[in-house]
Amino acid sequence: MCEDAHGIGRRALFVTGAAAALTLGSVSFAAADGQDQETRTVRGTLPPGSPDFVYVPVEVPSGVREIRVAYTYDKPPVPAGTQGNALDIGIFDEHGTELGGRGFRGWSGGARSEFFLRADDATPGYVPGPVRQGTWHVALGPYTVAPQGLSYELTITLTYGEPGETPRPVYPPSRARGRGRAWYRGDCHLHSWYSDGRRTPAEIAALARAAGLDFINTSEHNTHASHPHWAEEAGDDLLILLGEEVTTRNGHVVALGTDPGTFVDWRYRARDNRFGRFAREIHRAGGLVVPAHPHATCIGCGWKFGFGEADAVEVWNGPYTPDDEVTLAEWDNMLVASVRGPGREWIPAMGNSDAHRDPDAVGLPQTVVLADDLTREAIQAGIRAGRSYVAESKNVSLTFTASGGHGEHAGIGERLKVAPDTPVTVRVEATGAPRCTIRLVTDQGVLYTSDPLPVGGSGVAEWRTTPAYAAYVRAELRHETAAGPVPGALAAFTNPIFLGR
Q1: Which residues neighbour 203 within 8 Å (Cβ) at sequence distance 6 or greater?
Q2: Does 166 fall in a domain?
Q3: Considering 370, 394, 418, which residue would you say is the last residue of a domain?
Q4: I want to staple 414 with a disulfide (CB 3.0 to 4.6 A). Which of 1, 81, 410, 499 is the partner?
Q5: Whole-angstrom Cα distance, residue 46 to residue 44?
Q6: Are residues 121 and 241 in the same domain?
Q7: Per residue in 210-246, pLDDT tens?
Q8: Is the pLDDT of residue 128 over 70?
Q9: Domain count, the chain
């Protein structure tokens, strides 16, 4: 075993092509020379204000069968209100660390203390494949650094020998047995043990079926390594879309329903002006761009990239909390802006569980989409068009329509094309929502609130308006609240129906 030391201040340090990344001096290994295994230990300290990514080059000789990396770092006590140490890790192969990810071979963030990869297998979150000769890079991501600095230790082990055979990936089919044009329930933000979740794909698929879901989308943090591991969990009753949660330092975005094997890089901030490039990559790969939990309070979770490239926005994330209420209000403000003049686009809302582990509930909430069939393309089309509502469980269902006086009719995400002074009847039918109230929200705010539904949970509300009075209307189901005028948590909400030509 050999040891080396690295520090940000050492002369061997140099800046990579990305302003927020630094590369340290290389770690070298000799050729096999009859040895089965070689290990190097690297130590260093990262000061406060370190770049987002620090790369440790590893010179890999020929004949390597497996590379294994373990790491530790110190977690000193810090004053109240001050961030402690948190260090993420991943690896890039001989193709390099250039933005775009050609050399990407895996990322576990802070979820694991070690990983391995070889041709025939890899730690969850990492991509199996040959360990070829060349300069590899262990990628360190100092998520937060304590005032004392962050001291780390890397242990890199190369095992020599004949490589195994890399398995050919098999992916889930892009269609399931649907019911034709119908309402389909889905959860598009989920984490398994292929990133920082604790559930297997099989466990998640079983929970999805129990939650009454028709489709799910895989969304591991900053890795596509799980994609081949979902094929066995798909079936006629469950469509499995493939994607990624692109977890940048300025917000997270769900790549929803991308082509199998698509990797989307995350190593940039809003100030780098690079998000548009990767949003286009998601679209070219057949996916939707969905900013996730835009007002979440965790470090780096708040969305800073704007919504110009978004196909939908995740308004409700997991159990309903105040940050969801803030996101709902911001989304409603965007709806108001969209009706101010021609050519302004509106962004549909959706909701997902972001479930990681017990007791996180898969399908709380779930997006209910009107789609032509249970296929990747049809589900995406329904989400993109806003033909959907969000419900807290399979027990809650909504029917929401608007009609004019001469047979005109529109549903969720559609426009009722009638003259400004035409009387319009808005109708909501709800089931599975005991003691909830129905609220109708327009560009003027909440204009109708029903009495609480009976304990059976079913009820109907009707309200009359005109397009001159309400440019759009959307429905909410709210639970009871003990806080006076503060609204209760959502049980469901819809995308809008627009009124007028």
Answers
A1: none
A2: no
A3: 394
A4: 410
A5: 7
A6: no
A7: 999 999 999 999 999 999 999 999 999 999 999 999 9
A8: yes
A9: 3
